[in-house]
C-alpha cells in the first residue's frame, strides 16, 4: 500500500467520523453507567435510529411490578427494533442505595433483559442530560415509572404517567407509531 493510498484512506476516515456523530440525535448524546457492570458505561447513541421507551424506575414503589409489563413490551417488539431503557432513580425516595439490590429487583425478581442504568437523577435541576432533553420535548417525570416513547429520529412522540401500564392501548399505539417512523 502506497503512502498516498494510506493518506487518502485516513482522510476519508476522518471525514466519515463527523457524519456518524451527526446521525446521533442530541437527545441521545452521552454515556451512562450500566447497572451491575462494575464501572462500565454505554453510549446512548447505540439507540440512535431505533424506537425507544425510556422509563425512570424505582425498586420499592407501588408501580415496581410494571417491570414485568415493560419486559413483555420489549419482548413483543424487540424484533421490530424497539429498545427499552430503564433508569433507576431515588428522586422520589423509593430506590435502594445499593445498586446490587437494584439489580436483584430488576434482573432476578422481574427477569428484565432490557438495558438498565445505575441510579440517576431524573427530575429538577440535577436531572441527567437525557431526562432534561426528554422534559424539554414533553414534561418532567412527577413520579417513578413515567414513560417516554421516542421515535427513530430522537423525538418524543408521547409520554405517559406512572398510572399508565406498559400494555395500555395508548402506549402500545405510541410504540407502534415510533416503530413505523423512518430513521
TrEMBL record:
<dbReference type="InterPro" id="IPR036249">
    <property type="entry name" value="Thioredoxin-like_sf"/>
</dbReference>
<keyword id="KW-0575">Peroxidase</keyword>
<feature type="domain" description="Thioredoxin">
    <location>
        <begin position="11"/>
        <end position="180"/>
    </location>
</feature>
<keyword id="KW-0732">Signal</keyword>
<dbReference type="Pfam" id="PF00255">
    <property type="entry name" value="GSHPx"/>
</dbReference>
<dbReference type="InterPro" id="IPR013766">
    <property type="entry name" value="Thioredoxin_domain"/>
</dbReference>
<feature type="signal peptide">
    <location>
        <begin position="1"/>
        <end position="21"/>
    </location>
</feature>
<dbReference type="InterPro" id="IPR029759">
    <property type="entry name" value="GPX_AS"/>
</dbReference>
<dbReference type="GO" id="GO:0004601">
    <property type="term" value="F:peroxidase activity"/>
</dbReference>
<protein>
    <recommendedName>
        <fullName>Glutathione peroxidase</fullName>
    </recommendedName>
</protein>
<keyword id="KW-0560">Oxidoreductase</keyword>
<comment type="similarity">
    <text>Belongs to the glutathione peroxidase family.</text>
</comment>
<dbReference type="InterPro" id="IPR000889">
    <property type="entry name" value="Glutathione_peroxidase"/>
</dbReference>
Amino acid at each position: 500500500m502506497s503512502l498516498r493510498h494510506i493518506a487518502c484512506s485516513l482522510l476519508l476516515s476522518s471525514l466519515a467520523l463527523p457524519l456518524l456523530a451527526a446521525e446521533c440525535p442530541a437527545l441521545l448524546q452521552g454515556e451512562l453507567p450500566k447497572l451491575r457492570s462494575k464501572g462500565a458505561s454505554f453510549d446512548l447513541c447505540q439507540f440512535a435510529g431505533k424506537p425507544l421507551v425510556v422509563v425512570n424506575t424505582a425498586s420499592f414503589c407501588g408501580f415496581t411490578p410494571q417491570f414485568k409489563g415493560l419486559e413483555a413490551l420489549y419482548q413483543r417488539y424487540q424484533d421490530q427494533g424497539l429498545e427499552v431503557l430503564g433508569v433507576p432513580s431515588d428522586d422520589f425516595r423509593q430506590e435502594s442505595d445499593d445498586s446490587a439490590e437494584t439489580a436483584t429487583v430488576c434482573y432476578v425478581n422481574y427477569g428484565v433483559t432490557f438495558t438498565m442504568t445505575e441510579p440517576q437523577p431524573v427530575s429538577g435541576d440535577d436531572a441527567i442530560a437525557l431526562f432534561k432533553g426528554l422534559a424539554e420535548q414533553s414534561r418532567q417525570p412527577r413520579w417513578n415509572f413515567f414513560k417516554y416513547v421516542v421515535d427513530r429520529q430522537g423525538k418524543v412522540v408521547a409520554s405517559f404517567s406512572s398510572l399508565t401500564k406498559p400494555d395500555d392501548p395508548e402506549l402500545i399505539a405510541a410504540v407502534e407509531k415510533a416503530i413505523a417512523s423512518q430513521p
